[in-house]
Structure formats: structure tokens, C-alpha cells
Specification:
- The structure is a single chain.
- The protein is α/β, with parallel strands linked by helices and about 140 residues long.
- It has 6 helices and 5 strands, in the order βαβααβαβαβα.
Length: about 140
Amino acid sequence: MVSMEEELHVLAVDDNLIDRKLVERILKISSCKVTTAENGIRALECLGLGDPQQTDSSSTNNVMKVNLIITDYCMPGMTGFELLKIVKESSNLKEVPVVILSSENIPTRVNKCLASGAQMFMQKPLKLSDVEKLKCQLLNC
């Protein structure tokens, strides 16, 4: 959980630049610190879960602490669902809430994500009211 005084740090992951910028802007309006990643692989690198063959002592210094991950479901290379599964299997990150965004509202997809540990499944485009509701949930308001 996040305390009221602590700034919420969100990792926003989306392969679409416009969607990524929209999510970033809405989160910043809502007083969140935002880091963006253009795909699941880059997100894992930001989280310190990159390719173990490529890790060296300098890359571990770049690991950031985030309070929330918001990811697009449908991305090339690694889907948001695959990212969710890796995060939830990580001993360091399994407590970090993951929200999945999608332009398609497919019940089986929604259920699969929620059953695998997603905090929430939201329809694109993300709205300020969605972020406020999410923040309230995370901060136990």
C-alpha cells in the first residue's frame, strides 16, 4: 500500500506512442510520478527483471521502485498479460498492483487477467476518473 504523503510512482507500458502519452498526461494531472516503457521487455528492464544474461552491476542500480503498473494488453513481442504473469511470479514485485488496459472488452480476456492477479481491467481510453478511482483504491480512501 501507499501512504497519502508518498507520491504514487506508476510505470505506464504501451506500444502506441499516443496512448502512452495520454496515460502519462492523465497520471501527471493526477499528481503521479510516471515512467513510461514502449513494450513489455523495456518494462521488465525498468523493473530489474530484464534478460539475466545481460545484467551487470550497473544495470541493478537502474532498478526503480514503482507503486503501480498500467499496461496495454495487446502489444507486440510481449503482451500485457505476459508482463502481468512475470510481475506476479517475481518475489520482489508480486505485491505491485497491475492494471491492464485494452480497447477491446472481451470477457474471457478480462477474467483471465483478473484471475492471474490483475488489480483491474480498464477499457481504453483511460480517463481521469479511472485514475482517481484507482488511486483511491490504492490509498484506501
